[in-house]
């Protein structure tokens, strides 16, 4: 199977290339710098150079690929030209963004073009957006048809971050978080609270934050309200990401620290009748798992296909099957009564 990895020489792109090779797939390395791409290319791997301001060249780079995996952020600034080039080339597309407003713009604005081309466009296939959307779908199913509220929470502890993540999260924080109420998205209110974390004693304080689930979950769960939170300490860290701070973050995080980091996405749904169900997905090495998630998503789009148009992760892939696949990589998941 041949698929393109755009941004292949970046930090996340290199991990995706390595995962594609491990799976026995043929990655086509695409980006702006031939020198950087050739420095990571293995024998027999195609290197294709195209800038975001060259739509024809970018589409040509994707022409014989079943899927385009975009790892080059921040996606708010850099993502749309890659999607449009993939659609023009007749290739499915997915990316590793966690940028809430960008994800909404893709799902709202590019679905018709993708459907006309007969391809699937799936943003948010990273460790937060993919598992968060999927576990929320499974939780809501257990509640029943009348879902009053879904809360999705990123409850990972301290860990390492790349400069690209810091840059993206600074943009996310600046744009402000959304919430969803009665059929519309709106700016979220600054509220606080606490959530019990699986594997930890007691509850931890949480704050509102712009997670992907707020703009993905309402597209497949008929909930009156959807909101998202993270640990308060993490929200404070993101609020401190000035341009100078972002520039000081290493482009490539310490590998030992990366592998020791853990992530945890939790979803809790409540029904109009008071029934409550919660579920969670947790695993090691958030960047390494993002590569696993993206490459497995690409495989499924190429082999199994999905509906044409712009889709959330839970719409594109069977949630339980996908989460089960991740258990081979140290991921655990569970859905239980709250």
TrEMBL record:
Coiled coil: none annotated. Pfam families: Sacchrp_dh_NADP (PF03435). Residues 5-121 form the Saccharopine dehydrogenase NADP binding domain. This is Saccharopine dehydrogenase NADP-binding domain-containing protein. It comes from Nonomuraea monospora.
């Amino acid at each position: 199977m041949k698929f393109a990895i755009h941004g292949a020489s970046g930090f996340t792109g290199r991990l995706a290339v390595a995962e594609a090779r491990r799976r026995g797939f043929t990655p086509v390395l695409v980006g702006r710098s031939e020198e950087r791409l050739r420095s990571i290319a293995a024998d027999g791997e195609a290197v294709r150079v195209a800038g975001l301001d060259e739509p024809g060249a970018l589409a040509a780079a994707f022409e014989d690929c079943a899927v385009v995996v975009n790892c080059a952020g921040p996606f708010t600034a850099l993502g749309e030209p890659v999607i449009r080039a993939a659609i023009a080339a007749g290739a499915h597309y997915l990316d590793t963004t966690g940028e809430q407003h960008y994800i909404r713009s893709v799902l709202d604005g590019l679905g018709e073009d993708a459907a006309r081309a007969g391809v699937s466009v799936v943003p948010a296939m990273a460790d937060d957006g993919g598992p968060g959307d999927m576990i929320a779908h499974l939780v809501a199913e257990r509640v029943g048809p009348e879902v009053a509220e879904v809360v999705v929470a990123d409850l990972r502890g301290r860990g390492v971050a790349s400069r690209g993540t810091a840059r993206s999260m600074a943009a996310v924080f600046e744009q402000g978080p959304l919430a969803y109420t009665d059929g519309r998205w709106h700016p979220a209110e600054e509220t606080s609270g606490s959530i019990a974390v699986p594997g930890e004693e007691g509850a931890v304080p949480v704050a509102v934050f712009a997670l992907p689930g707020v703009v993905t979950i309402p597209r497949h769960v008929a909930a009156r309200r959807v909101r998202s939170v993270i640990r308060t300490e993490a929200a404070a860290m993101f609020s401190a990401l000035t341009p100078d701070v972002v520039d000081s973050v290493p482009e490539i995080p310490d590998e030992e620290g990366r592998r020791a980091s853990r992530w945890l996405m939790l979803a809790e749904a409540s029904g109009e009748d008071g029934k409550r169900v919660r579920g969670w997905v947790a695993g090691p090495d958030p960047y390494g798992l993002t590569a696993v998630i993206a490459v497995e998503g690409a495989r499924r789009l190429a082999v199994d296909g999905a509906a044409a148009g712009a889709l959330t992760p839970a719409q594109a892939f069977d949630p339980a099957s996908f989460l089960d696949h991740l258990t081979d990589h140290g991921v655990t998941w569970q859905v239980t009564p709250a």
